[in-house]
Every structure is written in C-alpha cells, then in structure tokens.
Write a structure and sequence with these properties.
mainly alpha
Length: 172
C-alpha cells in the first residue's frame, strides 16, 4: 500500500521513505497567464511567486510560444470561417463609415508604418499575444517564418523583463 495525501499544490507519494513532490501551481499559473498578458507575468513570477530568473524565462516563454501557436491556429480558423460561411450581406460594407477607435488607429498605423517588425516588437508589450498572432495571421499568415519572428521578439522581451526585474528586485 502506498498512502497518497493531497496538499495545496503538492502531491506526496510515499514509497519506502522516498518522497516525490510535485509543485506545479506556480508554474501552471505562469504557463496559463503568459499567453494572455505576457508583460504582466514577470512581476507575478519574480516578485510574488519568488521564482528564479531561469524558471521565469523558461515558463513564460513556453506559455508564450504555446499561446502564439494556439492563437495563430485559432485565428486562421476564424478567418477561414468568416470568409467561407459569413453571408456577404452581413459583412462590413466599404461604403459605410467605419468607427475609428484609438486601438483601431494604433493597429492600422502599426501595420502601415512598421509592418511585421512593429507587430513582432510590440506584440508582447503593448498589444497582447492573441492580438499579435491574429494580426500576423491576417496580414502575413502564409509564411510560417513570421511566427518564428514573433517567437524571437517574445524571447527578447523576456530577457529585457528579466534584467529589469532582477535588477530592481536587488534594489528593493
């Protein structure tokens, strides 16, 4: 018989005085939050969860890459379904006046002035990973190398965030 006791975030399995601990609540939280708001997971991981900088880089980038893949595929599916099954009478008419919000103007300006590099650089910071993946899929979606550039932009921002938070953690 192997007694199993469950604790908060810890599964303890006893087998002849050997213990196997599974601490996964912090890591799963970072993995699930990093695709949605990449920039907000760094203070959570470093300052609240007290994770090391290597763990923070690993788990935020795994979550971010998973988010890029999932939201890229989901965006491709939504664009396909919109083009295929949405009636033409319900699609936006070019003759109607469009609503210009600050976010829409920012996205159009970003695409026109900076192109793919602007989306890649600002996706983890100002935009979010789902919005950046949708824009890359919508405007640059046929080339899979564009997602690789988004991975690299995300990794570069993770290194910048880690340097920033580790430096200020030592000051505080």
């Amino acid at each position: 018989m192997y007694p199993v006791s469950f604790g908060i975030g810890c599964i303890l399995i006893q087998k002849r005085f050997s213990y196997l601990y599974f601490y996964g609540v912090k890591e799963i939280t970072i993995l699930l939050l990093s695709p949605w708001k990449f920039a907000a997971t760094f203070p959570l991981a470093i300052l609240v969860f007290k994770m090391s900088w290597t763990d923070t880089i690993i788990f935020t980038n795994i979550g971010g890459i998973a988010g890029i893949i999932i939201f890229g595929l989901l965006s491709r599916l939504l664009i396909f379904l919109w083009d295929r099954y949405w009636p033409d009478t319900l699609k936006f008419n070019r003759g109607k006046r469009k609503i210009h919000t600050k976010r829409n103007r920012l996205i159009v300006r970003l695409k026109n002035q900076y192109g793919l590099s602007g989306i890649v650089v600002l996706s983890p910071v100002l935009l979010s990973i789902p919005v950046g993946s949708y824009l890359i899929t919508k405007y640059y979606g046929r080339n899979m190398m564009n997602y690789f550039w988004q991975f690299l932009g995300q990794f570069a921002w993770s290194v910048i965030y880690i340097v920033f938070f580790v430096y200020f953690q030592n000051i505080l």
